[in-house]
Design goal:
Layout (H helix, E strand, L loop, with lengths): L8 H15 L3 E12 L5 E6 L4 E6 L1 H4 L11 E11 L4 E11 L2 H17 L17 E6 L4 H13 L4 E6 L7 H15 L4 E6 L13 H8 L5 E5 L7 H5 L2 E2 L3 H8 L3 H36 L2 H46 L2 H5 L5 E4 L17 E5 L4 E5 L7
Parallel strand pairs: 3-5, 6-7, 6-8, 8-9, 9-10
Antiparallel strand pairs: 1-2, 1-4, 2-3, 4-5, 11-12, 12-13
Length: about 400
């Protein structure tokens, strides 16, 4: 017998707990439900099995209440969680963070079940929809800070409306944490009262990848948001519950930007058309007034013709002057607005910066500009672009700022 003193049952079980829980990281497990009990406390206990083994599982009350489907015996599911040891019973179990149906067919069933329930609660009703503003100047974004969706939206904005400001609240767009992060980001932007419209979305993916946008917490956050929301999830063929709850659905993130942002060129065209239309209206009104005056003077008694004609002519001249002044003031105001837009667009033109003596430096063969000497090393080849022409150079030395 070893010289070490014997352990109590509690001590031995505690050692097993320490080793197991400390050495096995969180993991996903695929299995079939062979036993399922929802306790009156709200906790859910079930068994996952395959053809060779069984594993006891627990889903605590808080996570059990967030289930988007009703698990059934015989159903195959994916469960994410961590192996833990229940010391009092001396057995190990799987502490689940999240469970979801395994396979597209079961996902579709879960989708339809949640859709039916939320639809009955009025979350997709048309009367809940908020109109999208026609010319927003502040746009909130909820998406991955590293995803293609963000790049697509900003590219469209640069071409259509470079004066629009954006505020991004980054969030995971797939995985177990995604739904909570997306819902929290929407609530943060809404409570800030900063954006005039919010775009929520991500690029394309499989139904599993897009599932976060079918989670109940995301749908509720969108439906209860006081700021207009445009949903742009995946591609045109992908329809999520977030799309149904949003105030407007866009087939792609790029399309969402085009639907929300005004086109600067189109604005200039409309201003020109409006000014031409106002000119025509003013001219026609003056012509009509003069015609009516001539008709009136032809039927008025001869002795009063001169006095009435003079009075009407004077009134017409005053009206003509007022209309001309009002038209000129209106056109001058629109002209100033157009000049300000043009100046703002001109100030954002990179070529205008170069004409003031600045230059763009890039490492040879690269497109991204160099903005700090820390990006360069001795003997690096660089290309320098001026307002007119370009040059190549070799770095001899670098000096920190």
């Amino acid at each position: 017998m070893s010289d070490q003193p014997p352990l109590s049952v509690s001590e031995a079980t505690h050692r097993v707990k320490t080793v197991l829980e400390g050495s096995i990281p969180p993991l996903w497990i695929l299995g079939e439900i062979s036993g399922f009990t929802r306790h009156r406390s709200g906790h859910t206990y079930f068994t996952l099995s395959d053809d060779r083994s069984q594993l006891s599982c627990v889903l605590w009350r808080g996570r059990s209440q967030e289930l988007t489907f009703s698990p059934e015996v015989g159903q195959r599911i994916l469960a994410q969680g961590k192996i833990t040891v229940y010391e009092r019973g001396g057995r190990y179990q799987f502490d689940c963070y999240e469970i979801r149906p395994a396979g597209i067919g079961e996902l579709a069933l879960a989708f339809e079940a949640l859709k039916k329930r939320l639809e009955a609660q009025g979350y997709f009703a048309l009367e809940r929809k908020i109109p999208i503003p026609g010319m927003p100047e502040r746009v909130g974004l909820v998406t991955s800070p590293d995803g293609a969706a963000l790049r697509d939206i900003l590219k469209v904005a640069e071409n259509r409306a470079p004066w629009v400001e954006f505020r991004l609240i980054g969030a995971a767009v797939q995985g177990s944490a995604a739904a909570g992060e997306i819902a929290a980001a929407i609530e943060t932007l809404d409570k800030s009262n900063w954006p005039q419209v919010i775009i929520v979305g991500r690029g394309g993916g499989s139904p599993e990848d897009l599932w976060a946008f079918n989670e109940e917490k995301v749908v509720r956050a969108i439906a209860e948001c006081n700021t207009p929301i445009v949903s742009a999830v995946g591609h045109e063929v992908d329809v999520t519950l977030a799309d149904l709850a949003a105030d407007m659905r866009a087939p792609t993130p790029s399309a969402a930007a085009e639907m929300c942002l005004p086109d600067g060129a189109e604005i200039a065209k409309r201003l020109h058309e409006s000014s031409e239309r106002i000119h025509r209206v003013l001219r026609n009104r003056v012509v009509d007034a003069r015609t009516r005056l001539k008709e009136y003077t032809s039927v008025i008694f001869k002795e009063r013709t001169t006095a009435i004609w003079r009075g009407e002519t004077q009134r017409l001249d005053m009206l003509d002057q007022r209309l001309t002044t009002a038209g000129f003031t209106f056109l001058q105001k629109r002209h100033h607005q157009f000049d300000r837009c043009g100046a703002k667009l001109q100030s954002l033109d990179p070529e205008a910066v170069l004409t003031r003596g600045y230059a763009v430096v890039r490492r040879s063969g690269e497109k991204r500009p160099v903005i700090s000497s820390d990006q360069l090393n001795r003997d690096d080849l660089i290309d320098i672009a001026f307002s007119k022409g370009a040059a190549a150079a070799v770095i001899k030395d670098c000096h920190p700022e």
